[in-house]
Amino acid sequence: MKTVSLALIAKNEEAHIKNCLHSVQNVVDEMIVVDTGSTDNTKQIAVECGAKVYDFPWTNSFADARNYALQQASSDWILVLDADEILEVGSAELIREFITGSPAIGRVNIVSKYLDNGEVRYDCSPISRLFPKGVTYTGRIHEQVISSLPHRMTRITVAHEGYFQTDKTERNLSLLMKELDEEPNNPYLLMQTAREYRNRHDYHTANQFFSRSYQYATKEEGYYPKLIVDYVYNMMKLGQLDEGYIVIQAEEERLAFFPDFHFLLGMFYMDYVLGDIATRVEKLPNIETSFLKCMELGERKELGGVLGAGSFLAAYNLGVYYEVIGDSGKALKYYRLSSDQGYQKAMDRLRLLK
Questions:
Q1: What is the CATH architecture assignment of 169-353?
Q2: Where in the chain is the domain with CATH 1.25.40.10?
Q3: Which run of H or of E encompasses 137?
Q4: pLDDT value at 84 more than 70
Q5: CATH 3.90.550.10, the chain: domain bounds
Q6: What DSSP string runs through 242-290?
Q7: pLDDT given for residue 117 in this prediction
Q8: Residue 4: left (phi > 0), alpha (psi -120 to 50), or beta?
Q9: Residue pair 231/247 in contact by the 8 Å Cβ criterion
Q10: pTM as predicted
């Protein structure tokens, strides 16, 4: 039977690492923890959980630390987690299912909690985390797997909470700038830098990096749909609706498959029409069309994006749209649909309308 090692790097993660290791200890054959300089009880907790713990001096490169952890693993396959992540219950069978197939790089659905205007939401990212021994990483930050093997989506889900209401932008930007010194026109690094500035609410600087990423991207990158969505949302923050409209027009056909792009369109046309009702009122039906398209496409975890963009969030926004235009029957229909999927704002709206 093929064996699996957990490979994890950590520094000062005493608040999270126990839950992480407990979630995986009965799933893998060994747990490798590489500590990069903890001053808290991270290492002691890892040992108590049954992990093999190694020290590795921090070199300002996540890839260096991860590759050292991979070298310590003795199993046929490697599962990579961060200390602030938790493997979903029931994953053992899903891992076995994947590793008994032909060799490939397994993408895992990483679900990250974040705040959007005071509301907790969840972003899904398919990230390569399960692969045969011998694969390595490159990159100081947002490190990427190096392998000629095909990348395939697994059915494994991991909850990530380490970035929720924390600020790691200073560390991340420092490493990204070092990478950009070497590859100034790398669209992936430019996009990640833009996201860090966006997380700081520095939308003007973020826009400069999003613009450059858009300029240098080939449009074939797996992250390209998310780049476009993030770029246009950032322009909306700056009130640059005309510029955003140009990008939307250029990408509408290419991104027709992506629920989050249609969700963006619905939100964009709300702002776009309200910004100049006299000249843009003919775009009003685009709001309805966009959110209906989200519902038609449904949730597409393999593409990444915001949880609910193809279901309860789209349904809620349709309810809002119909309520505003005076179609109470349709408003109630879509509020109920959203409420049935557990969305609290839809439940609140229904109580008010009764």
A1: Alpha Horseshoe (1.25)
A2: 169-353
A3: strand 136-138
A4: yes
A5: 4-160
A6: HHHHHHHHHHTTTTTT-HHHHHHHHHHHHHHHHH-HHHHGGGTHHHHHH
A7: 83
A8: beta
A9: yes
A10: 0.93
Query: What pLDDT band is residue 73 in, cutting at 50, 70 and 90?
Result: very high
Token readout for 297 is: 């496409």
CB neighbours of residue 55 within 10 Å:
11
User: What is the spatial distance between Cα 80 and Cα 118, in angstroms, rounded to a whole number?
Assistant: 31
CA distance 302 to 156: 11
Q: How is residue 274 written in tokens?
A: 């309200």
Of the candidates 223, 227, 221, the one whose C-alpha atom is nearest the C-alpha of residue 206 is 227
Q: Tens digit of pLDDT for each residue in 249-281?
A: 999 999 999 999 999 999 999 999 999 999 999
Going by C-alpha positions, the residue among 182, 110, 84, 87 that lies closest to residue 141 is: 182
* Polymer length of the chain: 354
CATH number of 4-160: 3.90.550.10
